[in-house]
Amino acid sequence: MTTIKESKRAAQIERETKETKIRLSLCADAEKPGLRGSSGIGFFDHMLNTFAFHGGFEIALEMSGDLDVDCHHSIEDAGIVLGLAFGEIIGQNKNITRFAHEYVPMDESLAMCSADLGGRAYLVFNAEFANGSIGGYDVQMTKEFFRAMAQNMLATIHINLQYGENNHHKTEAIFKAAAKAIKKALTPAGDYIISAKGVI
Question: Are 117 and 153 in contact (CB under 8 A)?
Fold first, then answer.
């Protein structure tokens, strides 16, 4: 497994169930952003690499799952583990910008993500896909991935696909918008916590 260089903003999570076995390392300030490793699902790896690259993250992933059933458990559990890793980083560095939003176009598609990394878990997901898969990736799993990630990183994430036609383009625009919004929200904000309560 590729290891991640030590960083103050890094986390490693391991999770094993009867359905998946995952070891994931996340660095929020990567010198060489991208995905190292594989989920076993080609298009999902493409999305994770896109997410990592545009977020400035390095994700080292070692996992196996019950892909003989379908991709559901693997993608959802990857979202859980990635969310837990982000949650650890937020917990270690609470003086972050916290709120951010981004619009990202992908050819005919346009996606928006608005994020609040303030400790409240919620997902709003407004996107429609034509039924089907992209390779071994079920397009319905885009929502399940972000739901799992938002719940486990304790973040409020709103994703709105403004328009689009091609499932690949729509999905990629969503992952890029989410990556860029989370990256901006994680930006250090000085010596104080952006919360009227004084805590995140």
Answer: yes
Show Cβ contacts of residue 176 under 8 Å, excluding neighbours closer than 6 positions. 50, 51, 54, 104, 106, 111
With contact defined as beta carbons under 8 Å apart, do 176 and 104 qualify?
yes
pLDDT band at 4 (very low <50, low <70, confident <90, very high): very low
Q: Where are the domains of the chain?
A: 10-185
For residue 88, count CB atoms less than 10 angstroms from its CB and return exposed for 0-12, middle for 13-18, buried for 19 or more: middle
pTM of the model: 0.93
Domain 10-185 class? alpha beta
Whole-Å CA distances, 186 to 37, 101, 118, 165: 24, 12, 11, 31
Longest dimension (CA), the chain: 49
> Does position 1 have pLDDT exceeding 70, yes or no?
no
DSSP 3: P
- Residue type present at position 183: K
Tell me the one-letter amino acid at 61. Answer: L
**Closest to 184 measured CA to CA, from 80, 7, 46, 56:** 56
